Amino acid sequence: MGWELIIILVSFINSISIKMKPSSSSSSSKVHNKLKQVYLFHMLVVLVFLFFLSCHTTTDHKVNKEEQDVISSITNILEKNYVDKEIATELSRMLKENKSSGKYEGLDNTIFVARVNRDIRSIVNDRHLQVMTNSPSKKLPWSKSSILKVDVLEGNIGYLKLSVFPNPNKEYYGQMANALGLLKDTNGIIIDLSDNGGGHPDAVSNLLGYFVENKTLYDSFYVPSIDKSFEYTTRGEVKGHKLMNMPLGIIVNERTASVAELCALAFQNLQLGKVYGTTTMGLVNLAEYYPINDSLYLLASKGKQKNPFNVNIEDKGVIPDIRSDNAIVQAHLDLIKKAHGSSFKDWYNKSLGKTPVKLNDSLINTYVGNYGYLTIGKKDSTLYYNDEMGFSYQMIPLNENTFGLKLNSDERFRLIFKENRGEVMLIKKYFDGSEISYERL
Questions:
Q1: Whole-prediction pTM value?
Q2: Cβ atoms < 10 Å from Cβ of 387
Q3: pLDDT of residue 400
Q4: Is residue 362 part of a domain?
C-alpha cells in the first residue's frame, strides 16, 4: 500500500466525475451535483485513510534486498570466529540457502531475528549463539549489591552470599576484603553462589586468591580463530588477610552460570572446599558480541575450556560433591562437624543449655498436638518432637515459643510456635533462614 495506489484512485475518481453528467433539467442537475459532492467527499475520506495507512505501513521495518546482507554478515562472523569450524560451515550453508530461497524476505526485525535464531537452533544447541537486537553492555559495573550478605552462623561458621562477579575496581576489592575480614576468625566459611549468573573472571581470581598461597592456574580457554589460549590464575596478592586452610563449603544450583561455575569448579579442582547443591547451568564457553549492523548483534562462542584438569563443563555443568536440595544446611552441618570433631553432638546439646528457660504447664499444653505428619507430645512437663520417621527428640526451650532439639540425629533447625488467627502453627526454621510451616490439625 503506497502512493501509487492513491494516484490510481485519484485517476479513477476523476474518470467517474467526468462520466457523471447532469441531466438537462435544473432540479435534477441540483440533485445530481449534491450526490456528486457526497460521493466525492466519501472518496476523499477513503484517500485520507489510505494515506495514513500507507505512512504507517512504510514505517514498519522490513528486511529488504539490501538488508539481506545481514545474513552475509552473520555467516562471515561465524566462519571467522565460531569455536567449532565444522558447525560454522554447516550454519553458513543453511543460512545462505534460506536467504536464496527468500525465507527471510518481508520480515520485520523482531520476526526476522526469531526466525534466524530458530534456524540456528535446528543445527546446534549452543545457548550462547544468537542474534540480538539490544546493544550489549560492555562492562558489568561493580555494585554493593553483588555482595548480598555477610554473616556468622551458629557454631562460628561464616556465610558469604555473592549475587554476581562484577568487573572489579578499587572499591570492590576493598569491600571484598572487609567482608572476608569479618569472617577470618570463623571455623569455616560457606560461599553461596546459588543464582549467581557470572560476570567478570577478575573478580573470581580475586576471591580464589584469598584461599591459595601463590598465584595458581585454575582454568584456561582456547580460541581457535587466533590460535591462542587465555589463562585464568588466582591473584597472588590480595587486599587484607589471606585465609589459608580455611574449611569451605561452596553452594551452587541450576541457575549458577558462566564464571560463577568456573569459580565453583576451581574450588573443587584445587581441593579448597566441597561443592554442595545441584548441577550448574553449563554455560562457560568464551563468547563475544559481534556487530552485524547498527541495530543487530551476534553473540557467538569463540573459545572453549581447555584447562590443566582436563575438564570441560560446557553444556554439562559443575557436578556437586554433595547433592542436596538444602545445600546451605548440609554445608553448615559439615563445617560444624569438622570444627568440633567427635564432640559435635556434645557441643550442640550443650549450646542449647547455655540459657535454660522454664515454661509453665499451661503454656506447654497449648503446643501439644498433631501438625501434619509431625507430632508434639508431652511427658513430665517436657515437650517432645516426633518426626515422620517415628523418632522422638526432647525439645529444649530457648524462649517462650522457640525450641531446640536434644539430638541424636543430623537435623539442625529450631521449632517455633506462632499464633495465626487464634490457631497455633509450628514453624521449622533452618539455620540458613529457610522455614516450613505446619498447621495444627
A1: 0.65
A2: 15
A3: 87
A4: yes
